[in-house]
Automatic annotation (TrEMBL):
Belongs to the universal ribosomal protein uL30 family. This is Large ribosomal subunit protein uL30m. It comes from Ziziphus jujuba. Keywords: Ribonucleoprotein, Ribosomal protein. InterPro entries: Ribo_uL30_ferredoxin-like_sf, Ribosomal_uL30_bac-type, Ribosomal_uL30_ferredoxin-like. Residues 20-69 form the Large ribosomal subunit protein uL30-like ferredoxin-like fold domain. Gene3D superfamilies: Ribosomal protein L30, ferredoxin-like fold domain (3.30.1390.20). SUPFAM superfamilies: Ribosomal protein L30p/L7e. Residues 80-109 are annotated as: Disordered. Pfam families: Ribosomal_L30. The keyword Ribosomal protein applies.
Length: 109
């Protein structure tokens, strides 16, 4: 099980008015009917995500190309984006001081 599938299983699935559809497999070599369906969904390149209303028509189109796409609800999509944003967040720079501090003299002069 890859990390994305593990992430999807950890997020609770609820009914959502919108579906986020991501093309995860390439278009070349697929059937013409599948290419036309992806074109109708406006999915042209790999790893691109589109948002569509959760209607029977869209669910039927997704069912037709289910081996090429990943479908997420709104909550799943937002959780994934938040996790990616936290991963890419700026971290404080690591400062390395290569010059040793001068020895402190204990006797007053």
């Amino acid at each position: 099980m890859n990390a994305f599938k593990a992430f999807k299983t950890s997020v609770p699935i609820t009914w959502s008015p919108n579906l986020y559809i991501t093309l995860v497999r390439g278009i070349p070599g697929t059937r013409r009917l599948h290419r036309r369906t992806l074109e109708a969904l406006r999915l042209r390149k790999c790893n691109r995500t589109v948002m569509r209303w959760n209607t029977p028509t869209v669910r039927g189109m997704v069912q037709q190309v289910k081996r090429l796409v990943v479908v997420e609800t709104e909550e799943m999509y937002k959780a994934r984006k938040d996790k990616e944003a936290k991963h890419r967040a700026l971290r404080p720079p690591l400062v390395v001081d290569h010059h040793p501090a001068p020895p402190a003299s204990d006797s007053p002069q």
